[in-house]
Amino acid sequence: MTQWDPNYFQKDEEKLKELGYKQQLVRNLGPIQNFGISFSIITVFVSVTTMFSYGLLAGGPATMTISWIVVSFFSCMVALSMAEIVSALPTSGGPYYWAATLAPPKVSRFNLFGLISSNTSLTYGLTQLISNAILVKTDYMVTKSQNIGLCAAILLSWAIMNTVGRPFLRYLLYYSILLNSVGLVVFAIAVLVKAPKYQSASFVFTRFFDFTGPTREDGWSTIASPAYVACIGAYMSLSSFYGYDGSAHLAEETLQAAWTVPVGIITSVVLSALLGFFLLVALLFSIQDTNLFDMLQYKNPVLYILVESFGKNGALALFSLPIMCSWYCGLYLTTSNSRLIWAFSRDHGLPYFFNKVNERFMSPMRAVGLSTCLSFLLCLSSLGSAVAFTAASSMAIMAVLLSYGIPIFLKLIGHGNFCLRKGPFQLGRASYAISFISIVWIMFSCVIVSLPTATPVTKQTLNYGPIGVSIIFILATGGWLLKAQRVFVGPVKNWTPMDISNYMGSAANKT
Fold this sequence. Notes:
- There is one protein chain.
- By secondary structure, the protein is an all-alpha fold.
- It has a single domain, classed as Amino acid/polyamine transporter I (Up-down Bundle), CATH 1.20.1740.
- Helices cover 70% and strands 1% of the residues.
- It has helices at 8-18, 31-42, 44-57, 60-88, 95-102, 110-137, 144-161, 169-194, 201-206, 220-223, 226-233, 235-238, 246-249, 257-285, 292-295, 301-346, 365-382, 386-413, 415-419, 431-448, 465-487, 497-510; strands spanning 58-59, 209-210.
- Helix 16 (301-346) crosses helix 17 and helix 18 crosses helix 21.
- It is globular and about 60 Å long.
- The termini are far apart.
- 52% of the residues are buried.
- GO terms for molecular function: transmembrane transporter activity.
- Keywords: Membrane, Transmembrane, Transmembrane helix, Transport.
- It is found in: Membrane.
């Protein structure tokens, strides 16, 4: 690791200027805070808690544990590839800027749509966790209108904290890190200690379930094969490992970004993989009743496990931990989204109106507002609909993974040129191989999250994620052809306002 340079702030500004931008945001995040952004967004505490029932139904314990190990390994490969790129190009644009620098900018919109879909999926998931908790001691069912109101309140709280509460975000990161690490470990140990009995190791690592059909005889393992069920069962793990580009979107607010951001991305993925596996195994060992339909009486098997071991009051106390982690995840996902929107509008990929930084709070308030509004609009279509929620989740994973894959692919095919601009974090001779592995894994993952997860395939069980991503691609391409190519300047490369004005005029004359 390089020595900490006392002149890092000046060097960060010089590097940013070299990439074509001036310093506008407050650069005051250190290594822990930058790591905390991606770590809080990944938040395996939430993904395991919300997707546990899906994992049990689609493959059971064997698929859950094995897929976690496999997905963790390949996610680390992707994180390493991304870390090498961000070390050379440490700006708030993240994958958008990397793709726009290495290739034509029209391919770089997936990251924005993916992160907005992620926010929608997370908001829906948080409302479901709250609804599940209410059902533990009451029979009260939250209505759709109440769900929408709760969704709006949650999104508004994130928006307020990212605008007027901007000075406190870096301090709240410490609480988020503690909840997602120490809180998770305490949660898992408490579950293991209080469990009246334990399942065997063979149950945790080899037991296979298939409840993907109306009956056990009509599931995908019978219609297709157990391998198909294992693939779709990996959806739980895949839903955990994305969003770790959050550290990159905060690059312009991070000290010694060319080194700190790559380390933040890698450590967040590695630590999340280890903690998530520990939590997953602890819950599986502590299952008391292997009858899945009994476990689903609380709509969330994790709650069932907690109630069996701690009683209702103790279960609710522990269940509040993933609920709080979910809120922190949304808070910093909104931060990441707003920085992407702000950077994209800076290059006229979005209306320049959203590039404004509020001088009092040093926050891109307009970008925060747009991110919140778009997330709420998607929530209106998904709240109360399991089909729409699955589509939003699938869209989020595919779009984000594609946004990761595009710059990694461009780095791969232009490896010689990229080597000329490498930053301090380098993979050396392993760079090419790791990039290739990352691309293959991303392609495979996109196929997995495109598959139908339940049988028979009807309009209620069809996976609409690929359709949503296709629509996004068509709209993005159409927008590029109709307008964006005339106004989009890409990475500004130190252009002056006069340069941009001349470019606009020239592009308009061509049309």
